[in-house]
Design goal:
By secondary structure, this protein is an all-alpha fold. About 100% of the residues lie in helices and about 0% in strands.
Length: about 100
């Protein structure tokens, strides 16, 4: 009878040890999963930050290119106006000279 009781006690101790080991393993699995989730979250945030920076940089570059294009068009229009103004001035001077001579 004593042997049976000892076996039962040993079996209970072994069961408790297995339960504690399973609890420890479950805790480790949860901790590992949390760490992996944090790593994934950080990776996603870093990726989003980089993508945001790239979008901002692309928008800045596009804005600068558009501004350069607009300035170049403005410069061309100014040059065209100067040429036309010079031509009109020369025609006006010629017309005034003709008026003076003709009178």
């Amino acid at each position: 009878m004593e042997e049976i009781i000892r076996r039962i006690v040993d079996a209970e101790k072994e069961a408790e040890a297995r339960i504690e080991a399973a609890k420890g393993e479950a805790k480790k699995i949860v901790e590992d999963a949390k760490a992996e989730a944090r790593a994934i979250e950080e990776k996603i945030l870093e990726s989003a930050r980089k993508e945001g920076e790239e979008l901002i940089e692309n928008a800045r570059r596009e804005g600068e290119e558009e501004a350069r294009r607009i300035l170049a068009e403005g410069d061309m229009e100014i040059e065209d106006m100067k040429i036309r103004a010079t031509q009109n001035f020369e025609r006006a001077v010629s017309a005034v000279i003709e008026l003076v001579r003709g009178s």
